[in-house]
Task: structure prediction
Amino acid sequence: MRLIVAGLTMLKQEGFVATFARTLLWLRGERRYERRSLNDDVYREFRTMFEPSRQDLVQQRLEANTWTVRHRLGIITAIDDGSAALFRETIASVQAQSYMHWRWYIADASSDDSIWQMITEAATLDSRISPVRLPQNLGSSEKTNVALHMADTVYVVMLEQGHALAPFALYCVAQLLRENPETDFVYSDADTMDDKGQRCEPFFKPVYSPEMMLSLNLLDHLSVFRRDWLDKIGYLNPAFDGAQYWDLYLRIIERTNKIQHISKVLYHLREISDSKAPARNNMTDILDIERSLLTAHLERTGLRNIRIDFPPVDNNHSVCPNISWDLTARKRISIIIPSRDNASLLSRCLNSLFSLTIYENYQVVVVDTGSVNPETFALYDRYSLDPRWKLVFYEGEFNFSRACNLGSYAADGELLLFLNNDTEILHGDWLQLMAQWFELSEIGIVGPKLLHPDCRVQHAGVIVGFGGLADHLFAGEQEQTWSIFGSDCWYRNFQAVTGACLLIARTLFDQLHGFDENFKLNFSDVDLCLRAQAAGFRTVYTPHVRLIHQESATHQGHIPRGDFELASANWQAELQAGDPYFNSNLSYRHCVPELRRDRDDTSAVLNGEMLKRLPNKAIIDLPDDFT
Result:
């Protein structure tokens, strides 16, 4: 009710019909997934270019046999009633591995004697296969735990019934473990096999992202971990059947961060029903299980009064939890807004902020960078008596980074939120949902989702290397997009978020000496985030904080040439390595995730191309100078 009254107040004061309509859209939660399909021929060409050939597999087998350190990998599979033909394909995928040093522990609880016969025949021919027959009344976790107890290997590989391993899967895992012996957990990319056995719907993942684990089980398929973790934290919990692996992996990551990602499709899924698990079409049961396991995880990390909602979406896709928790203290937040004239633009920003924001302990610091219009000063006078208001005047040659730093000097908050004057708040709990992340000591910076006025995505995190320097993931897409890199509606870690709305702890901001004033207009936000990352802090993107952003409404895309050159010079290490929160199989040429089409599609190569195309002029006009 408070949000509706605030919306009506805005409507009366300024006539913000569009803003109020968008606020109601948020309240109703009427958002649906948009799925971007991948052309089968494109995916087939990609696999031909980047996956091992038959000759490569032969070479892998020969090479592995020369290794002095060869981990024996224990494959874990639990069987329930299902297709015998599909399980035959699972067997074939294990036997086709280019890495030969494995054991397979199979717990069969099916009522189909033909499946058991198939397993025992395979075990007779291959001593590496160890089967056991179980009662049919065991649940998913119970029968999998039997197989896990059977395993006597250091590492176990989870392989579900009817699914399949890529022929080079175990080789890639063993090679990584050989090179990184301290590793506790390994996971990979995955795809799906349709009813004709054709591979489709790949899912390419980022490096281990702790906050992304709150949206989905990032570590699933392929999952490899040290078996002794089970003795330390417990085995699969039958109470979470239907999401039991998510629960287990959350318990593991609470104790270790030695987690490695293999950026290859090593696992092929099939949709196999499990009669002993909660029905997959009973979404209420599944959501209750997910809510319980996420709540338990967050409480174990020290957070309290966890609230988890699932915004309504198309039932054909996974839903994305919106999670909040209590703050131990409501820290003062200083909202710093550099601005020059454009009174109508700033007025929309301020009215939405003051009218909607529920979080009470905040101040607004406007840094005026040279306004001359009477309308602007009339707007300032409107707020001059508000105790939350502070006005600072910036003098000298315009420098956006310096203006932000000047605002921080005048601010007295423990948290600093840098906000563009061309933004509009959409929901009252936005500050609470951003500030809550600082209950976790590892978090240094938080950024929200920003939308264009037509509600297309403007910002859902920054990928360093896009276009040769940096750009926004999912830019220009509809909300609720589902892609080969997942969704804009997932919590994620990034190397950077945009400075158009960026929240940072005051202590960290001071430790980093603020924004680098050598950047006059662009890229200082990304640079700040990279320095925070180097200092050991994570950056979080929260999709459940949404603002409207009229991008470039003030500077109109006129960027100093020096900003491009400085960013390129400062970030060479990151550009050469590629963004770990992206995926090396994806293109750096597109903000919307697409497959690489050639080996030169890397951040380092694109950076070199961008520098060659950079016009020899002081101010670069985007996008015209690069069209």
Remarks:
- The chain is about 35% helix and 20% strand.
- The radius of gyration is 26 Å.
